[in-house]
Structure formats: C-alpha cells, structure tokens
Amino acid sequence: MGNSQSENLCFFSEEETNTLASVYNESGFEAVIPLFKEKFDNLGTEPLNIAVTGESGTGKSAFINAMRGLRPGEPGAAKEGLTEQTKNPTPYQHPDLPSVCLWDLPGMGTGNFPCHKYLEKVNFKKYDFFILITGNRFKENDARLAREIKKMGKEFYFVRSRIDIEEYSLRLSGRLCHIKDELDKIRRYCIESLVENQVDSPRVFLVSSKYLHGYDFLEFCEVLESELPEKKKHVFVLSLPNLTQSVVKKKKKILSAKIILAATVAAGAGAIPIPGLSFACDVSIIVSALLYIRRSFGLTEESLERLACKVNLPVEELKEVVVSPLVFDITPVTVTKYLSKSVAGVAMLSDELLHLIPIIGSVLGASVSFTASYWMLSKALDEFAESAEKVVMKVFQCNKELP
Known about the structure:
The protein is of the alpha/beta class. It has helices at residues 2-5, 14-27, 29-42, 60-67, 118-121, 140-151, 163-172, 179-196, 217-227, 230-239, 245-266, 283-296, 301-310, 315-319, 332-342, 361-365, 368-398, and strands spanning 48-53, 90-93, 100-104, 129-134, 155-160, 204-206. It is built from 17 helices and 6 strands. Helix 12 packs parallel to helix 17 and helix 15 (332-342) packs across helix 17.
C-alpha cells in the first residue's frame, strides 16, 4: 500500500516546501496546518478550460458530451445535431469536477467571428489548449487558426470525428477487413490537407464520440496528459471517463496525494476528540476527502446511473460489483466507525510513513491521529479504486454494442 502511494507525493513545489519549512521553524506545528489545509482544498481544483472549435455539424457537441460522460438530452448536455449553430462561446462544466470546463466555440469565419478577429472575439487567453474538430477534411480556416494559436504560444490538437461511421460504411460494403488501411488513408488525407495550408508536422487523431475506448482517443489523452503542466495534468486525468483500468490506476496515483493531505489536516491543530477513541481527529476533513475520491472515480449514484443508461444496463448490476459499502454511505458516523477499526492497522504502517509529509513528517508520523486517519483513507482509496476497475470490467463484459 505505502509503496504504490509514495510514488506520487511531489504535490508541493520547491517554493511551497521552502515556505512550509520557514513557517514551521519560526512558529511551529500549529502555524503550518493552515497551509496544508489550503493545499488540501485546492488540490485537484485547478481550473482547466478546453476550447473545442470547428464548423457546425462536425461533431463538436457529441465530443464535448462524451468527454464529460453525458448522453444527448441529459441535463447539462450540449445539444447535438447537424443544424445546430454555435453563435457564442458556450461553457459546459464537467458534472463531477466543476473546475474543468469545455467550451464550444463558433467556427472561425462564421457570423460575428471573422478570421482576423477570431481569437480576440473568443477570448483566446481563457483557454489552456484548443481542439480543432472536423467530420471530413481540415480546411484553410482550420489551418489558419492553428497557425495563429501557435504564434500565441498555446497548443492545438486536430481531431477527425465520427470514425465509427466510416467503419460502418466499410462493414456495409464488405471491406471491414481493410479497416486499418482505410483509417490510415483518412489520417493521411487530413494531414496532407493541413500541410498544404502551411501547418508544420500536424498530428491528427481519429475519434468516435460514441466509442471513446476505440480508435485514437486513448492515445489522444496520453498526448494531452504528457504536454499539460503538472497541476493541469492531474485535473485532466481525474476528469476522464473510466474507459480502462489504466485510467483508474492513474487516478488512484493522483488521489494518493489528497489522502496524505487529508490525514495531515484531520490530525492537525484543533483536531476534535472522538468519543470512545483514544485520539482526536477532524472527521469532516476525511468525509470531504472520501466524497472527492468517490466523485473522481465516477462512483456517485448519479455517475453510475448515467453510465448504466449509456451502456443499457440496470444500475443495480454496476452497484453489485462495488466492493466497499462505504462508497454508498459516506457520513461522519460511518467514518468514525471505520476510524475505530483503523487503529489496529496503525502498527502495520512502515517507517516510510514518517517521510510522507515534507518538513514535519517526524512530528505527524508519531501521531496516532495521523496514522489512523491515513490508514483508513488508504484502505478506502484501495477499495474505491478496485470498485471503479470492477465497474469498468462489468461495462465491457455486458455492453454487446461495443465494436
């Protein structure tokens, strides 16, 4: 348990670590806890604004909905349809991580968004990166926009959407055996059209919003993850649908930082004595951490219901594979019960626990409050992650429509 979670503990920058050391040396343990609390509150809430642009009818709305795990017609979903025209930049927040927002932008050169004023009109500085979508080939305006974005020092990514329709056409014509060659041909066609319009070394990802697990979507996410700054990378990964077990594992690694901070703050200055237990702890902090972890793994009632509807399964079948009853009962009362059980596991924590927290590890490592809180949260993280992986497996076993 400890080894897997200690791999991702660089959640304090060098500057933050120096500040912690200075405050701790000057004013002691109590003075440093508010800094941990601030970090706990902010971790995973870094704003991430993703711009999605392209002509009407290219699948922008479907892509935005798929990235947010929503089906057409659900509350908060973007309207899908060939005739729907985006007239103004429209924000769509992630249903579980409100700090993540995908923006549906009008196509360049349309209506009130002429080419020479496009970036100014859509408030270019707001977005962390741009996704340029087409349903056929990229045109001159797409290339022009990419060049302008590059000049301004931001990243852009080309997505060729609706690839499942191309596969369906191949199936009807009896040429499905040639799908790899045909997809390579589509990719080359898109790349050549961009190169013809002076875009250097364009990368084009073939994506189906209906089947995100297929084609280039996972590769697309890997590229985004590798090129985003650390804080943005973390919130991006947590916002992804649980398409594979590897996505769940990445989320678990990121969330390990959250539980260390939660245990630190819960056991810190002003911790509240728990009746019947021999230590003090702020149970509300642990409840908050568990709720956040549940949301990030897509294990809320709402998330499971959305997923069940999307893959045409009774939601009870997804709930049956959840291994921890705590997932559906996160309250101060149940957390206190779990904390009482965790005291027995404190002695099993290895010496590395003393080094998990920068600067004051030796102080907290000796604290029963910290070790009990950390043990309980670690067990919960393991079980929540296992539950999320089992949900992923259930979906892929039972959804007969997946290609």
